[in-house]
Amino acid sequence: MPLDNSYKIFFERRFQKILDGLPEDIRGAFQAKMSYFQGNPNHPSLNTKTLTVSSKRLKELGVDQIYEFYINRKDYRCIFYVIHDTKEIIIAYIGNHTQVKNKF
Asked: Are β-strands 65-70 and 8-11 bridged in parallel, bridged antiparallel, or unpaired?
């Protein structure tokens, strides 16, 4: 199911703490990318793609899909969850490539 700007965007409870722990340039880049994301979750500069995770993991999280988009070209990515029935996007995590890979 394609994502569009009709989805409501929420932030996971722990997200702000993760964001606060990042370097200032990454926080700034995240804010800029969120402007694109809010208008179009598939904006070309985000390079949004689905993460492949087990159905067991999706069920544990209570979501339909997990996606990522690039924060910067080098390393950082933002992970978000999607629930299609209620048209919700949950911004969940920011980390570098290794951190994201280890999380899922």
From this structure: unpaired
Tens of pLDDT, residue by residue over 36-75, are 999 999 999 999 999 999 999 999 999 999 999 999 877 8
What's 62's DSSP letter? T
> How far is residue 4's CA from residue 46's CA, in Å, rounded to a whole number?
13
CATH number at residue 29: 3.30.2310.20
Residues 49 and 68: beta-carbon distance below 8 Å: yes
Number of domains in the chain: 1
Residue type, 32: A
C-alpha span between 39 and 25 (Å, rounded): 22
